[in-house]
Amino acid sequence: MKISKLSTMLLAISLCISLTGCTSYLFENEGTEEPAVIERFSKEAEYIGENENLHNWEFRVEGVIMRFQVSLDLQPQVKKLKPGQKVQIDYAGPPNGDNEYHLEAVKFE
Q1: What integer pLDDT is reported at residue 29 of this predicted model?
Q2: Which of 20, 22, 47, 94 is 20 to 30 A from 80, alpha carbon to alpha carbon?
Q3: Is the link from the previous residue into 76 a cis peptide, with omega within 30 of 0?
Q4: pLDDT digits (tens, 9 = 90+) for 68-79
Q5: Is 11 exposed, middle or buried (0-12, 13-18, 19+ CB in 10 A)?
């Protein structure tokens, strides 16, 4: 049985169309998740210290130890803190996959 080039092209085109339709049906909800809502907080906290193993900083906020990512430009300011020192922190959430919040500012006297 001899298949012409035209028949082969039509078969290939129809296969592509059907595959495209199937994949769009299977993955139609992909990428439509609700984006995370970023919340900002400003709270009094007690500095605990730097956790060098996890590369984050810890503060006690309302009795709960919380971990924070600290940007490179804010690290020198945070490194001046002493364990037990009371500060005002501004941070954003929700936390990332490592349960770390993003520290935005530290205010102390």
Answers
A1: 56
A2: 94
A3: no
A4: 999 999 999 999
A5: exposed
